[in-house]
Amino acid sequence: MAKRKSATPETPEAAALLPAGTGDQASPSVEQPAPSSAANYTVLARRYRPQQFTDVVGQEPVAQALVNALQSNRVAHAYLFTGARGVGKTSTARILAKALNCVRGPTPTPCGECDSCRAIATGEDTDVAEIDGASNRTIDDVREIRQNVQYRPSRSRYKIYIIDEVHMLTKEAFNALLKTLEEPPEHVKFIFATTDVHKVPITILSRCQRFDFVGINGGRIVERLREIVAQEGMAADDDALELVARRGAGSMRDAQSLLDQLLAFGGERLTVEQVHRLLGTAPADRVLALAEAALGHDPKRAIELLDDAAEAGLQLGELLDQLIDYWRDLMAAHCAGAEARNLSVVSRYRDTLIQQAKAAKLDTILAGLDVLAAAKNRLRGSTQQLIWLQASVFRLARLDDLLSVGQLVQLLGTGGTSATPVGERAASERKPAAPTSPAPVPMPRAEQRTSPAVAPLSLAPRPPTVEPRSAPAGTGPAGQAKLTVDNLEVVWPQIVAGFPLSFRTALERATPAISGPNQLVIRFPSAYNIEHKHFLELGGIDRLESLLAKAAQQKWTVKAELTDAPAGERPAATPPPAINNSSASRQQREDQALQDALVRRVKEVFRANFESVDEGFGVAPGDPARAAEGTDTEEA
Amino acid sequence: MSWQHIRGHEALVSEFAHAFRRGRLAHAYLFTGPAGVGKRLFAVELAKTLLCERAATSDPWQACDGCASCKLVAAGNHPDLAIAGRPEDANELPIQVVRDLCQTLALKSAFGRGKVAILDDADDLNEAAANSFLKTLEEPPPQSHLILVGTSAQAQLPTILSRCQLIAFRPLPDAVVRDLLRAQDVAEGTLLERVVKLANGSPGQALALADPELWDFRGALIQAIARPPLDSVALSQQWMQFIEKAGKESVNQRRRASLTLQLLLDFLHDTLRVGVGAGPRSAEADELPLLRELAGRGDPDGMLDVIERVLEAEVQVNRYVQLVLAIEALCDALGRGLQTGTAR
């Protein structure tokens, strides 16, 4: 009970100070104040703050290490506790302080009754300074510490500085602390606690013993919550507690805050419905219905479901989180089937989930996760949550419409004409595909030029045995689905379009080039170094490589580099009109390009428009080699 | 008076009453919900109730509105009620505001009934400010209550969230919004109805939208979009002029920009909805043919891209990107997007 309230009349703190579950908690400090003294209530997270190393739930390794240090008299002079919020850093720091300064100590089991222990528990001890590093972050604050360090503690063994939120100290403050931290007087101990250890300079880290607090297992949280509920004299359904623990996401304090709120607002017995209502989260069947609509390609239904959700006052941000969890479940269930573990879906709907997962393609599920994750990022800064969410779910519902690259390749090869996917794109067709004759025979390319290899445009992926793996780009036998210098320009935008939005923006800044046998280089103008970095960090290379491998049935190596070329020289997606300043007019060049059978097919199948035609597109007459190899394909 | 003048949040009021009577009010709350639904009003009322000296009433949950304490709260200068927020001229809530607030909270209560601190604009807490709040938020001095008022939990650090109890305010029912608008002298008629529909249950937003000039501009915007070769240069000029008419203060300009974007978004959103056969959310019946035509013109993916682009612009406007840049870039993208069906 980190009760600061010296004003609180009752003294059951001692009772609550005892380890949880030692059975000796006849009357834990459950305050039953008269209604008018509502202002006296102390939240659960504070009242049930652990007071012994054995109380700290889920941090046994840390606790054990500290206990051993205390027992063997090897306590270091500086500790750094890191970990997520609400896992016990500050609590452990206080316990360690008590253990060191307890009248009967140093001992791994501080008595909790002596003056020192009690004062430390309330944060008022003269020799244990608990400093808020975020509010006292300047060098002057540190200088004050340095000045006081030399004086001996007033009554206890050690002078202990607990600096919480230490990551917020300024650089100067950190540096001013270094000397003291390395060789403090023997009566001084430092304990730092922070959630963001990466903001702490390396020089500080190297002077501290670092302990990483792990997230707390959900089951342990439920156990603890159950104890608390019992001690508070309330009742709760196990399902509800599990939901609360899951929401805590490894943080005991989060879970306790939530439980506190539920106990305050809810009825006599805590139920799942209450949790959902309080959190504004959707009950499982709502999420399930939404997922069904999205996986069943029914954008209308999905949009209407979201309308209902908004009307019911659900928190849309939460709903998105739930969807993400659900898609993660789908992914797990697709891969592991009935053996999938750690599913967030309630057990009642487990079978439905597994069915849905089996029916969906893994690619679709993964793409769905991408869409949802991107939406989560965007939702944060927007006030238009409903529109964001509907747009994202709309995308989700159309995912299968985006044919995979492999399928397109096949489509081109088999002479299928319409890339129109299963969705209702037909309903909103921009224009009837007039020039698209039903099933043109494979097109000979010999129309414009004589070519030794009059290869049919059969681009269906070949079985790997036929695959000349090491064939350098552009010299493989005709009829191979391949990416070459020639078709790169055409194919590239479609490759880009196959990426999720987060990549697309980056890729559109880049220029692709083929640098060698099966080597693709994406050049980012130096002005777009951020996109370059972004692309690398998101694992764009891997994605691109796997995409190319799938489409071209060949292993491609992809590199991304920065060039000095001024930005805008040739941004792939939106070339400035300056490109047209060549001899041939744009129209002429488009016409010329149209003579290429491949381009025509691309135009038909994708219903594509010219964005630009590069000068010298098409094969110059008298270049049969290129003509021959040009029988390559497009991808979406 | 007291709690009765909090409109549309009856469920929350009764939940708080419940917690209050059980003696389980927490010391830190984070109020979230759309802007303009009365979160701050609620917070002040809660403060009044907590601080009330209750000479007159038997029910401690109802502030008496008669004692010195209640009157001071109503007048906005109760010594035990500290209200802080983002300074007018700043984009974020600086650390100093939080420090001051924590300091006031550390002082003894003047009336002896504890202290209440309300931090408005909690969304705009900058990193240093948020961190400097953590210790006080976790273990404030005895008998103190902290209420953070923001729009969404996602805007807060996880460390802040884990210390607060989250209270989500829901949008108000349309009827309540309508009543409140009437009380604000918004004339009856189509404007009022449309505004109520668009406001998403926020009277504050509704009031801001109830500006005939805004709707005139919306008309122009939709005209421009409906006729495909979109002259993005002219449109962005027109747009900026309209925004600049909101006044010299950048806050007002930003506000207006965000409102125009919202109107545009709602229109595009309706187009998307009509495209898949769902009913429009805000458009009037006379706009339906136009929506259908637009929806039929491009494929839904193109419309999605356009919508995402506009949403992005909205985020930019909220994040203090230069207005001219945001709007011009948007117009440019719109021009291209509506032609080819995709806005990249």
- Name the biggest interface: A-B, 84 and 85 residues
Rg of chain B, please? 23 Å
Topology, number of strands of chain A:
10
| Helical percentage of chain A | 40-55%
Question: pLDDT below 50 for ≥5 consecutive residues: which ranges of chain B?
Answer: none
Q: What characterizes the major β-sheet of chain B?
A: 5 strands, parallel
Quick gist of this model?
The complex is a heterodimer of chains A (636) and B (344). Chain A has 636 residues and is α/β, with parallel strands linked by helices.
How would you sum up this structure, described in words?
- The complex is a heterodimer of chains A (636) and B (344).
- In chain A, the strands form 3 sheets. Chain A has a 5-stranded parallel sheet with strand order 2-3-4-1-5, with helices on one face. A 3-stranded mixed sheet of chain A has the order 8-9-10. A two-stranded parallel sheet of chain A has the order 6-7.
- Chain A has 4 domains: 13-21 and 42-213, Rossmann fold (3-Layer(aba) Sandwich); 218-279, Helicase, Ruva Protein, domain 3; 284-401, Zinc Finger, Delta Prime, domain 3 (Up-down Bundle); 473-629, DnaA, N-terminal domain (GMP Synthetase, Chain A, domain 3, 2-Layer Sandwich).
- Chain A has helices at residues 13-17, 44-47, 60-71, 89-101, 115-121, 139-149, 171-182, 202-205, 218-231, 238-248, 252-265, 272-279, 284-295, 299-311, 316-336, 350-359, 362-379, 385-397, 405-414, 485-497, 501-507, 529-537, 540-552, 586-594, 597-606, 624-629; strands at residues 78-83, 128-132, 159-164, 188-194, 209-213, 235-236, 269-270, 511-516, 519-525, 557-563.
- In chain A, strand 8 (511-516) and strand 9 (519-525) form a beta hairpin.
- The two termini of chain A are 62 Å apart.
- Chain A is an alpha/beta fold.
- Chain B is of the alpha/beta class and 344 residues long.
- Chain B contains 15 helices and 5 strands.
- Chain B has helices at residues 10-22, 39-51, 68-75, 95-106, 127-138, 158-161, 174-183, 190-198, 203-209, 212-226, 232-244, 250-276, 288-297, 300-318, 323-340; strands spanning 28-32, 81-84, 115-119, 144-149, 165-168.
- In chain B, strands 2-3-4-1-5 form a 5-stranded parallel sheet, with helices on both faces.
- Chain B is elongated, with a radius of gyration of 23 Å.
- The mean pLDDT of chain B is 84.
- At the A-B interface, helix 11, helix 14 and helix 18 of A face helix 1, helix 5, helix 6, strand 5 and helix 12 of B.
